[in-house]
């Protein structure tokens, strides 16, 4: 399989892929050209709408279903529609998306459709108690849905260490040290209708083989952004981007709420600053959807979604099916 962009008529990033109605549906960010200066706050990622893509076969024709939701249609949003995800809950397709509210604080919204490709109708307010970026939904075999989220630097996770938004901690400030726990992503159970958290949210613990939380200076292993959850042979795989070291890593647990034990890397750094992915089973094989900036010749804010097959060894460790 050539590792080519799924589509080239628009830039797409942060792919969340799901098998719905016998096809693969991909929910990406829609990157666009702007003249905004690059900074660690991510202001250059100034997206205004979402398109949904679908494929009947991996490697086959890709359909762009057009605009599924736009910022202007969401009353609470000021700007920056970042990485979305979708889930089928209670008979409806739910699109979860982060954006800055009118005060510049990232929140997570939900929009609903009868069809996987949308268009989606947004709730007028963000999900109560939501913050930061990169929502990733997961519906377990018992029907309970979960929402994982969080991202450091521009994603503002570092601003929420006291439980309320502390703007003084915005920018690239995060814990440092070999004896200081790393910032942790968050998870909450969703209500049966998928529109709110059922109760509060909690930290997602990522630990080493000895059960010790990964530390802040473990840049190769600790969480930065881009949470994803999938289940394989009864185990819960929490995968994520390590951010400034640009790996996609994963950790494995027995419970969707964690803890998860660090398991290794799935993807080495790609062309471009960010890395972001999803993992999905389709027709008996497993696939990693990801993005890179090769089509835009390295422009970090102009990314393209790609797909590669992954495999598991007998211990459940993940590897790319083809190394190159
Ligand atoms: O697309 C904007 C941000 O870049 C996403 O929310 C992050 O995961 C990173 O890919």
TrEMBL record:
Site (Important for catalytic activity, responsible for pKa modulation of the active site Glu and correct orientation of both the proton donor and substrate): 134
Signal peptide segment: none
Annotated family: Belongs to the glycosyl hydrolase 43 family.
Name of this protein: Xylosidase/arabinosidase
Superkingdom of this protein's organism: Eukaryota
A GO biological-process term: carbohydrate metabolic process
Keywords for this protein: Carbohydrate metabolism, Glycosidase, Hydrolase
Organism: Exophiala bonariae
UniProt-recorded Gene Ontology molecular function terms: hydrolase activity, hydrolyzing O-glycosyl compounds
């Amino acid at each position: 399989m050539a590792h080519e962009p799924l589509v080239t008529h628009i830039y797409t990033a942060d792919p969340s892929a799901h098998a719905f109605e016998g096809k693969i549906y991909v929910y990406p960010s829609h990157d666009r050209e702007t003249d905004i200066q690059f900074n660690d706050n991510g202001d250059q990622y100034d997206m205004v709408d979402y398109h949904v893509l679908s494929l009947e076969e991996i490697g086959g024709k890709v359909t762009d279903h057009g605009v599924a939701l736009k910022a202007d249609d969401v009353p609470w949003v000021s700007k920056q529609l970042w990485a979305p995800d979708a889930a089928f809950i209670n008979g409806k397709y739910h699109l979860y998306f982060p954006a800055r509210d009118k005060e510049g604080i990232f929140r997570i919204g939900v929009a609903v459709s009868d069809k996987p490709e949308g268009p989606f109708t947004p709730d007028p307010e963000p999900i109560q108690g939501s913050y930061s970026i990169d929502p990733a939904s997961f519906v377990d075999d018992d029907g309970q849905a979960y929402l994982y989220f969080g991202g450091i630097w521009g994603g503002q996770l570092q601003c929420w260490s006291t439980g309320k938004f502390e703007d003084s901690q915005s920018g690239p400030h995060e814990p440092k040290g070999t004896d200081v726990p790393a910032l942790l992503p968050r998870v909450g159970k969703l209500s049966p209708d998928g529109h709110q958290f059922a109760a509060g949210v909690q930290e997602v613990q990522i630990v080493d083989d000895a059960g010790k939380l990964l530390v802040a200076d473990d840049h190769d292993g600790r969480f930065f952004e881009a949470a994803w959850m999938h289940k394989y042979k009864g185990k819960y795989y929490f995968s994520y981007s390590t951010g400034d070291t640009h790996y996609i890593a994963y950790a494995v647990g027995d419970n969707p709420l964690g803890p998860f034990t660090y398991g290794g890397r799935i993807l080495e750094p790609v062309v471009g600053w960010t890395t972001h992915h999803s993992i999905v089973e389709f027709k008996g094989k497993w696939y990693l959807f990801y993005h890179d900036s090769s089509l835009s010749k390295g422009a970090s804010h102009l990314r393209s979604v790609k797909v590669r097959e992954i495999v598991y060894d007998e211990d459940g460790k993940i590897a790319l099916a083809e190394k190159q």
